[in-house]
Amino acid sequence: MQDEAVVLLSGGLDSTVCMAVAAQQHRLWPITFAYGQRHAREVEQARQVAAHFGVARHLVVDCGFFRDIGGSSLTVHHLEVPLGREEAQLGTDIPSTYVPFRNGVFLALAVAYAESVGAATVFIGVNALDYSGYPDCRPQFIEAFQAAVNAGTAAGARGNPITIAAPLLHLDKAGIVRLGARLGAPFELTSSCYLGGEVACGQCDACRLRLKGFREAGLADPIPYAVTPAAGP
Amino acid sequence: MQDEAVVLLSGGLDSTVCMAVAAQQHRLWPITFAYGQRHAREVEQARQVAAHFGVARHLVVDCGFFRDIGGSSLTVHHLEVPLGREEAQLGTDIPSTYVPFRNGVFLALAVAYAESVGAATVFIGVNALDYSGYPDCRPQFIEAFQAAVNAGTAAGARGNPITIAAPLLHLDKAGIVRLGARLGAPFELTSSCYLGGEVACGQCDACRLRLKGFREAGLADPIPYAVTPAAGP
Q1: Is B156 on the interface with A (CB under 8 A)?
Q2: Which residue of A has its CA nearest to B80?
Q3: Are A152 and B158 inside 8 Å of each other by CB?
Q4: What is the domain count for chain B?
């Protein structure tokens, strides 16, 4: 018998490998958060990944409220928002849609969905590379949130808590690529490019990190790039 | 100097008293979650309460996704959803919009908002009457969620965590009415009726509980009721 599992699916490399891990032992209920035009391509990728895994239902949640919440840090209030500033320092255009405690919000909604569909597990693709910079990607956050889920759900109150699974937590990008390759994850359907264009730029931090991961894993990245940077250290 | 505080405001009695408590020492950033036509009146009440306290901004978040998530328990999947069933047993029409782990979702979004506007506190009006039935209203859930917030926010990582304040946690309805009366909470702008009509029905569980609270506090409830039940035990 296959247990049900909710999977946070962005359509990027990490969450797609996470899908492949979950698919080994679970019936998949992917959930994707859509917020704004910038993410239209990511959502389309997520749809293709979900179709690849033959899921019965792919829930795409419109998160327009992220703009209301996140935007306020730029327009309403003068206080500093360190995470938003970090994003800006990376040179992306994320700040206007960025939400502090984003994984807290995503996990809360995913747990609600899991309890609704009767899933015993929620998969999230956070990993070692993320959690250096984002407090809500750190192992101690995942552990603490698990305790909150145990205390705050009917499943938890009955002694059958919903488990948050983060199988990539301690992997770097090369490790994620190797794991995905072993499980047959559809790399060709994913992109990690910050710019969200038709073809991955090959130059932003996310593209470089992904290419480095494939290089270190000794594998070819099957997606096209507008520019393929020279192999560096 | 007044600290900033986000307040979860539904427009009901409890969250309005919570606003009055928060207003003593904080500049208020109320946030209201709107999901579906049934809640239109509650949102209007919340707007009036927010205006009463003279807030600079009242954030109303559209939560259409609650229907997608909660509805799935009724239409997509055969597994039992105990909390939804409990609601049904109360004789309300909530199940189609009910979300398991709802306070988890609300708190996560409120914490994101708090971090965005630079608020150090999030107020939530859960209380002793709620937490007998709902796992996400129990003190142990609030404590566990606080730990997740400490671990998962930039503020927490810097050692200045966002505090979740639940000042009504151990009060019953009469205690909440007494507290609200002492602080001058605008009871006349609130309603707790499940039916959400123009005039509170006076007969549903929420109306009866509220009326009992005022009676036990020795105070008159200023809002009109369609039917005023005879005073019972």
Answers
A1: yes
A2: A118
A3: no
A4: 1
